[in-house]
Structure formats: C-alpha cells, structure tokens
Amino acid sequence: MPPKQPTSLAVQTPSLTVHVSPATCHNISLFKDIMSQYRKLDDTIIMSLNRTNAKFRDLERAGIGKGSVQDQSCAHLWKDLVENWKRRTEIVDYCVNVVDQSLEEKRRSLDTVDADPAAQRKIKGALFAEEVKRNQIHYELTVEKIVRNRSLQVFQSRCKYFEPPLSDAQARQWWDAAEASR
Fold it and tell me: What is the pLDDT of residues 55-81, one digit of tens each?
C-alpha cells in the first residue's frame, strides 16, 4: 500500500492564510507565487528595519518603550523574520515531500505496467515531468538559503549588537551559519 500523501498544510502570515495542498505543490506557478509573497519581508528588509525603528522610537517618545529603541526594533524584526523563514521552510519541505512521493509512485507504476510501449512512453513522459517539478521544488531550498543569508547580512549590519535568543535552536543555527560565512 503506498504511503498516504499529506492532505494540507495551513500557513499563517499577518495578512493572509495560505492552505498548501498537494495540488499547490504540483502547480509550480502557484507555488512560486506563494513563495514570492512570503519573501516580501526579506525583499524589503531595509524598509522594514526603518519602519520598525520609527515605531519603537515613537513608543519611546510616548513613554511606553522598554529598553533602547535599537534593541526593541531589532528583536521585533528578528521575530518576524524567523517566523517567516520557518513558514517558508515548512512549505518547501512539505512540497518536496509531496513531489518526491508522487515521483516514487510514478516510478513504481512504470515497473508494474505491462510491456505495452504506448503505456510505458506515457508513464515515462509523466515521470520526466515529475522529475522537472521535483528539481524546481528542490531548487527552492537553495533559493531559501540565499535569501536568508542576504537578509541576515542586512539585519546584522543594522543590528550589530543583537544576539538571537538561545531558546530557538533553528534560528540560532541560521544565525551561526551566516556568521560562519562572513
């Protein structure tokens, strides 16, 4: 019995909820559009840093702020970045799993099909299409690493004295990887 494919992965952003299903993963255009939407924070990190700084400066002027403006704004933006990175990682990992399972099912069906050349050609064509899809989804892992490193470099240039909390192991791992590449 083939392994059951996951049914859906709901992902929450501040402005929208995206339900990623196996159909989403197989529609490369839609998948890339979703990833593009989730990368907006990274694409506008300098503007986000400026806005967050201004927000906490205003709070400080109103007597509401706790600690330095720079520390508060860096901690706030860091939290948003890491949440966004985790969501994107969940989506990519989910889709990698879905497409890999689909590819494996097609490979098994090629092994079980009769010697009918037309049926074998059809399955081989579908298998090739799945492999292309798989490569594109897997490529997103590389893109994610590049986007994260670029955002981390910008973040670290503006938040020189910020250290991520030790309690978040994955965020700390991303931070350490960026530090090692400096």
Answer: 888 887 887 767 787 888 888 899 999
Query: Could you give the 3-state DSSP secondary structure of residue 142?
Result: helix
Q: pLDDT band at residue 29, thresholds of 50, 70 and 90? A: very high
Structural contact between residues 66 and 139, judged by C-beta atoms closer than 8 angstroms: no
Tokens 């998948």 -> residue: 31
Contacts of 41 (CB under 8 A, 6+ apart): 48, 80, 81, 84
Calculate Rg over the CA atoms of the chain: 21
Calculate ∠ Cα 114-6-100, nearest 5°: 50
User: Alpha helix (H) ranges present in 62-116?
Assistant: 69-112
Query: Do 133 and 26 contact (CB within 8 A), yes or no?
Result: yes
pTM: 0.78
Q: Is 160 exposed, middle or buried (0-12, 13-18, 19+ CB in 10 A)?
A: exposed
In degrees, rounded to 5, the angle at the alpha carbon of residue 10 between the alpha carbons of residues 9 and 15 is 150
Q: Encode pLDDT of 131-151 as tens digits.
A: 999 999 999 989 998 999 899
| Structure-token pair, residue 158 | 């503006």
